[in-house]
Amino acid sequence: MATVIDYKEVLKDRYSDILLSHTILLIIGTVIGVIGNGATIIVYSSRIKERGERYFIPLLAIVDLIACLTISAYYVMNNTYFYDYPSNTVCCLLTFLQVFSSGLSAHILLIISIQRYLLVCKPFGPKMTLFWKKVSLAVACSFTLLYSCPLLGFSGTNTSEDVFMNHTINTTSCKFSKVDTKATTIFFGILALIIVCNLFITTALYIPVLKRIQISFPTKSKNITLATRNEQSIASQDVSEASLTKISGIELETDIQTTGNSKSPGENDTLNIFRNQELSNDADRSDDPPSYAVQQSSLHDNSISKEEENKDSPDHSSKSKSSSVKKRISIMFSVIILAYVISYIPPVVFVILRYTIENFNYITLSKAETFAWFYIARLIFVNHLVNPFIYCYFDVKLRRELKKCCTHKSKL
């Protein structure tokens, strides 16, 4: 009796190893993202009251936490039911949540780049106040909802007949568009344009910020180098003058002792008169023009000490501290934006290819192409995982509070 081959099961088993490995990595990444973003939200909401430069960090962590949960659920469901997706409602809901969370995260980064540009590149211009920060977030949420809601109608499960190993099989998959129409083509074209424009504007606004930060660091190091050189020269001058004074004092004492032992009292008086004359001549020489340099060096020492006192004043220390925090936070956001750009460009390219290639089908892809498609086209997920590590590395206050929480729990 001939065995009946279920070619649909054969198709499922064809790339089951790639799908399983990707699912395991997704679960691990989700755990890391939930712990990292959750810890960031808890610390900022309970321990760090002063926001200022850090205003957007807890908000971005909340959006990244939602994105980790929704995107991982969307991909895990796709991997598990790649050719026999069970529910149209689940497909629509997860598609909407994935696009909304990742889009809102990208728009928050755009707001951050605008805020840093105004703060760093336009220090004397208008600043983004707390009111405008809230308004910009409300606009970003409304705009993201505006282009995400149509996906509740466009997306869903699609059943099609595909040819595999010269046999026709029925496959049901979750897609962004159930039916390819002119309206869906226009919609996905606008969606791709929004993503590309957001990437371009965010990058274009933050490049001047990075240039300004890079320019400011060398000048600071040059000033430090010049100050240390001045201090070293002044210190060497002081040491040389002190050594000369000590040597002359020793020579003078030895002369007095030798003359006192060898000469008579009358001769000693004569020598004392002679030495007094030499000392008075030395005092007269100290008033000559060459001593002007010594006087200037002493005045310079006084001015340096006054400058150091001014630098050590509370106002100056608070200003330098705030400027260093501003630079550190700017560098932190630059790394976050760099991670955003790197993780968004490949998926955008793959999505454009997916909807521009006619009769695109995963069945026609080789194993290497399927591997590249699954791992590179889904790099968006990585963007929401790495941000907590970037916060912890650059934000000293967050790192300190996390250490306090860990040490407190270990003591308990």
UniProtKB/TrEMBL annotation:
<feature type="transmembrane region" description="Helical">
    <location>
        <begin position="373"/>
        <end position="394"/>
    </location>
</feature>
<feature type="region of interest" description="Disordered">
    <location>
        <begin position="280"/>
        <end position="321"/>
    </location>
</feature>
<keyword id="KW-0297">G-protein coupled receptor</keyword>
<keyword id="KW-0812">Transmembrane</keyword>
<keyword id="KW-0472">Membrane</keyword>
<feature type="compositionally biased region" description="Polar residues">
    <location>
        <begin position="293"/>
        <end position="302"/>
    </location>
</feature>
<feature type="transmembrane region" description="Helical">
    <location>
        <begin position="186"/>
        <end position="207"/>
    </location>
</feature>
<feature type="transmembrane region" description="Helical">
    <location>
        <begin position="56"/>
        <end position="76"/>
    </location>
</feature>
<keyword id="KW-1133">Transmembrane helix</keyword>
<feature type="compositionally biased region" description="Basic and acidic residues">
    <location>
        <begin position="303"/>
        <end position="318"/>
    </location>
</feature>
<dbReference type="InterPro" id="IPR000276">
    <property type="entry name" value="GPCR_Rhodpsn"/>
</dbReference>
<dbReference type="Pfam" id="PF00001">
    <property type="entry name" value="7tm_1"/>
</dbReference>
<feature type="transmembrane region" description="Helical">
    <location>
        <begin position="329"/>
        <end position="353"/>
    </location>
</feature>
<dbReference type="InterPro" id="IPR017452">
    <property type="entry name" value="GPCR_Rhodpsn_7TM"/>
</dbReference>
<dbReference type="GO" id="GO:0004930">
    <property type="term" value="F:G protein-coupled receptor activity"/>
</dbReference>
<keyword id="KW-0675">Receptor</keyword>
<keyword id="KW-0807">Transducer</keyword>
<feature type="domain" description="G-protein coupled receptors family 1 profile">
    <location>
        <begin position="36"/>
        <end position="391"/>
    </location>
</feature>
<protein>
    <recommendedName>
        <fullName>G-protein coupled receptors family 1 profile domain-containing protein</fullName>
    </recommendedName>
</protein>
<feature type="transmembrane region" description="Helical">
    <location>
        <begin position="96"/>
        <end position="114"/>
    </location>
</feature>
<feature type="transmembrane region" description="Helical">
    <location>
        <begin position="135"/>
        <end position="155"/>
    </location>
</feature>
<dbReference type="GO" id="GO:0005886">
    <property type="term" value="C:plasma membrane"/>
</dbReference>
<feature type="transmembrane region" description="Helical">
    <location>
        <begin position="20"/>
        <end position="44"/>
    </location>
</feature>
